[in-house]
Write a structure and sequence with these properties.
Blueprint: H1 3-51, H2 58-76, H3 80-96, H4 98-105, H5 111-121, H6 127-141, H7 146-160, H8 165-172, E1 177-182, E2 188-193, H9 196-228, E3 234-235, E4 240-241, H10 267-281, E5 306-307, H11 310-314, E6 322-323, E7 327-328, H12 331-340, E8 346-349, E9 356-360, H13 367-376, E10 392-395, E11 410-413, H14 415-423, E12 427-430, E13 436-439, E14 445-448
Antiparallel strand pairs: 1-2, 3-4, 5-6, 6-7, 8-9, 10-11, 12-13, 13-14
Helix pairs in contact: 1-2, 1-3, 1-4, 2-3, 5-7, 6-7, 9-10
């Protein structure tokens, strides 16, 4: 086959692949749109159930939607809060933006396009204005990418919105919040939504402080270079040391003869370190506690619960440390935290399966709670990740009905799911070892096991036979 023939064959195959990818995207879009329709129907059913509770309390009127979201979330293996958001978004899309849903179902736009259109048009309360917005933006969305659609959609919405920017800002500022998202390798992301001026002000201050650190570092390099006559240079903005000085793991050079040090952190790394340092150690300029909190807000310190295998503390293994059952913690940080901890809970685990066998402490107080925090780690409702230390202790068999207060009848439920269990008709049966059997109001059943644990075993040294270890007994 000649070069021209090969190019033509490659072009033909490329066109076939593009056509097949287009067809599959249409199939996926139709399925996603149908799922959104189903979620919208579920939201509508929950609203009908709520309407039938006209004389009920506010909490009781919340239960139909929360219970519906919980059932769908357990089946989808996700958080019921996330599912509740999905239900609301789907209902809003189907009922307020029907043309967009049709275009999505036909494969003319993607889910990303739909999200941009709905978010930008959600502020338009007038039905006619919303229809004009949808027709205008949808036509453009069918020709370009979601990122391009966003700026155009915001402009069109601004033009059609009868409410002023100040009115909308005053309402939007009520949604300010901070959240955490766990990543891999012992890292997490801290996010914040707030007024643009303050958010950009925070970023600018961190940037200026970071650049000041970099400038001081460059001055130190020049001083060393002028003093000993050896060149001490850095690439670009001084972010990578190119001399023979050795940098430590935190990005700070260990210096010459232990006296001179260089900062080889990038500007992004410095900004992050400054943010965490100030948030963990500083005092707010406005303190509204008025003496209610001893020492004021500045006296409040961060609290985390870290589980560390004894073998990791001893240095014979390098894994297994975790934060509140949410994410991994690197061994060095775990050992530093353990060295400064005021006390420990010792947790005995099954050497094969990793199941919690017992918990003890030198000064035993609230032993059952410590045992349950070690066993449950987090809220036991399917899909929930709230740490057990922030949960309530639920009697699986109601205490008022004769349920015992012991570890085989207790478990961690966050306030949201504790309320849901009692108010929305969920029943729970607890089996030995902490396994839970849920029955939803619909009659569907689900099983939830305690969080699994990965056992880190040190490599055997020599031919020494491991000694038999007696099974520990719970100290209560």
């Amino acid at each position: 086959m000649g070069d021209d023939e090969q190019r033509e064959a490659d072009a033909l195959r490329t066109r076939e692949l593009v056509a097949e990818a287009h067809r599959l995207r249409q199939v996926i879009a139709a399925a996603e749109a149908d799922l959104a329709r189903t979620h919208a129907d579920a939201f509508a059913l929950a609203e009908e159930q709520t309407d039938r509770l006209r004389d009920a309390s506010t909490r009781e009127r919340e239960m139909p939607l929360r219970s519906m979201a919980a059932e769908l979330a357990v089946d989808a293996r996700m958080s019921d809060r996330t599912m509740q958001t999905h239900l609301f978004d789907a209902h809003r899309t189907v009922t307020q933006f029907p043309a967009t849903w049709e275009a999505w179902h036909d494969g003319r736009v993607s889910r990303a396009h739909v999200r941009v259109i709905v978010e930008a048009g959600a502020e338009l309360d007038d039905e006619h204005a919303r229809a004009v917005f949808e027709q205008d933006v949808l036509g453009y969305a069918e020709t370009t990418s979601p990122s391009r659609v966003r700026s155009y959609a915001e402009q069109v919405a601004e033009k059609l919105n009868p409410r002023s920017m100040q009115e909308r800002h005053d309402e939007a500022v009520l949604d300010r919040r901070v959240w955490v998202e766990d990543l891999r390798d012992g890292m997490s992301m801290l996010g914040a939504i707030g007024p643009s001026v303050e958010i950009h002000g925070v970023y600018d201050r961190l940037t200026r402080q970071g650049k000041a650190v970099k400038a001081a570092d460059r001055a130190a390099r020049r001083e060393v270079a002028e003093g000993d006559g050896e060149p001490v240079a850095a690439e670009g903005d001084g972010e990578r040391l190119t001399s023979e000085h050795n940098a430590g793991p935190d990005g700070v050079d260990e210096g010459v003869d232990g006296e001179v040090w260089f900062d080889v952190r990038t500007l992004d790394q410095i900004r992050t370190d400054l943010l965490l340092d100030m948030m963990l150690t500083s005092t707010p300029s406005v303190d509204g506690t008025d003496g209610v909190v001893e020492g004021g807000l500045g006296a409040i310190r961060a609290h985390v619960q870290v589980t560390v295998p004894a073998t990791t503390l001893a240095g014979t293994t390098t894994g297994g440390a975790e934060l509140d059952g949410r994410c991994a913690v690197d061994p060095e940080t775990a050992r530093i935290l353990a060295g400064n901890a005021p006390g420990f809970d010792r947790v005995f685990l099954d050497p094969i399966g990793g199941a919690v066998l017992a918990v003890d402490r030198r000064h035993a107080t609230a032993a059952q709670k410590r045992y349950l925090m070690a066993r449950d780690v987090r809220c036991r409702f399917p899909g929930c990740r709230r740490p057990a230390r922030d949960c309530e202790w639920d009697h699986r068999e109601d205490y008022a009905l004769g349920g015992k207060t012991d570890i085989e009848n207790l478990g961690a439920f966050c306030k949201r799911h504790h309320t849901l269990k009692h108010a929305a008709g969920w029943s729970v049966v607890q089996h030995p070892g902490g396994r839970l059997h849920f029955t939803a109001p619909s009659g569907l059943e689900y099983t939830e096991d305690p969080p699994p644990r990965v056992m880190f075993i040190p490599d055997p040294s020599g031919d020494t036979e491991p000694s038999a270890t007696p099974q520990p007994v719970a100290p209560f």
